[in-house]
Design a protein that fits this description.
By secondary structure, the protein is an alpha+beta fold. It has 16 helices and 21 strands. It has a domain at 8-132: Nucleic acid-binding proteins (OB fold (Dihydrolipoamide Acetyltransferase, E2P), Beta Barrel), CATH 2.40.50.140. It has helices spanning 8-25, 41-44, 86-89, 91-100, 148-153, 155-161, 163-185, 226-234, 272-289, 313-321, 336-345, 356-368, 421-438, 451-457, 471-479, 496-499, and strands at 52-64, 68-75, 78-85, 106-115, 121-132, 189-190, 196-197, 209-212, 217-221, 239-247, 259-268, 294-297, 300-303, 309-312, 329-330, 333-334, 376-382, 391-392, 395-406, 409-416, 464-470. Strands 6, 10, 11, 14, 17, 18, 19, 20 and 21 form a 9-stranded mixed β-sheet that branches. A 5-stranded mixed β-barrel has the order 1-2-3-5-4. α6 crosses α7 (163-185), α7 (163-185) crosses α9 (272-289) and α11 packs parallel to α12. 30% of the residues are buried.
Amino acid sequence: MTTKPVTALDGIIAQRYTEAEELKAAGINPYPNHCEKTHACAETKELPEETEVSTAGRLVQLRLMGKAAFAHIRDFSGKVQLYIAKDNLGEEAYTFFKKHMAVGDFVGVKGHMFVTKTGEKTIKASSLDLISKAIRPMPEKFHGLQDTEVRFRKRHLDLIANEDVKDIFVKRAKIISSIRRTLEDKGYLEVETPILTPDSGGAVARPFQTYHNALKMPLRLRIALELYHKRLIVGGFDRIYEIGHMFRNEGIDTTHNPEFTMMELYQAYGDVNTMADLFEEIVGNAAKAIGVEKVMYRGQEINLVPPFKRLYIPEAWKETFGQDIHEVLDGRQFKREPLAKLAKEQGISFSAADPDSKLFDELFETKLLAGFNCPVIALDYPTAVSPFSKTKPGDPELVERFEAFVCGGELGNAYTELNDPADQFQRLKDQAAAKAKAQGEDAENADILDGDYIEALESGMPPTGGMGIGIDRLVMLLTGQDSIREIIFFPTLKSLSTEKGG
């Protein structure tokens, strides 16, 4: 049997537990139920001299000087300096402060405001109370918490040590609030739809699955909001939106987390162009809400002021490749031979097993999007890669769809929504067959994803525009972060036992 070695940290923790118990034994509660707080820390610095205040926060800096000390406490609003002197507190209280209060503890202070010789607004403490004893020492202050694994696994320490991290999450909240204001000002109603569903429907992705014991039926965590939202449009709601968590049982990288936040909206009597205008307004207003017009993102300066570039794929295809895009299209499919020929000419590597859609994506992303770093809205996609959007009038090989990109990464997706129930049924059937085939199942007898949705569509849905925006990716852009882990409080990580082979 091996014994875990005792570390210096173990010794500190043990000593502080002992100290807390000694305080309790002496009749002093190191975790009182209440403290008086009339002002946030940052607010006190706006007050006139001599104003009496009562505030509280975490002790983050401490400089002892014999019979006096300077300290800083911090709450969510910011920091304020304290001047703590034996002459003001009294000998007993000052001795208790020196012996029992340390950086990391929460303290409550009463006193009055004054200005030091260096010009800093400071609270001259007349009383100082321990209101929560920290057992573990804080991360080293001046270098911050740098280990990224520790930062993400122990976000509370990250927030204590790195004040700029808190700022990212404040901005995230402001961005989401801005989206809500923009939509509500335009008459959109926020709705809530199920997270646990009989089928995750509305997108092609691997869901998380569970089982409801009472109902004796499998359930899935949603991967999209689309089909429930369209039912609401059928039911008479004209403008709806939802901001919520989606769950996809797939890979993790700098732009993907298994649990992520999406905003989806639908507007009756709208279309893809309505959605493109709204996308610009949402992003522009969100940027204003956090006070930015330009941001450095993935090494590029990004201008966030609308209007954004609109890239019409058939036009760009012609300009880039010197051919009409219809030369590689055949109804709802691609023509493999001319598409493969073009990919080879453009230096795209692929194998015979790669689907046509992959070749198209490579050509689109590496050639048509090349040189576009600032937001670009790409419109008029081939039907072959957009099976759930309405085709363009007079051209069944193209659909009314856009995707928005920044530095090659997708931010949003929008359609003029398909509202023909027969067409929708066939496309859902095709999707189910493709999914079954990929899983080695019987493609001919595959069940469509959501038969109830077809029944709802048969009741009639008006012309509708729909859009989805990845909230996490939008926050990454507006705050200039390259990794999704930086803008999610608690990202999904491998367990330590898994990483160690346990």
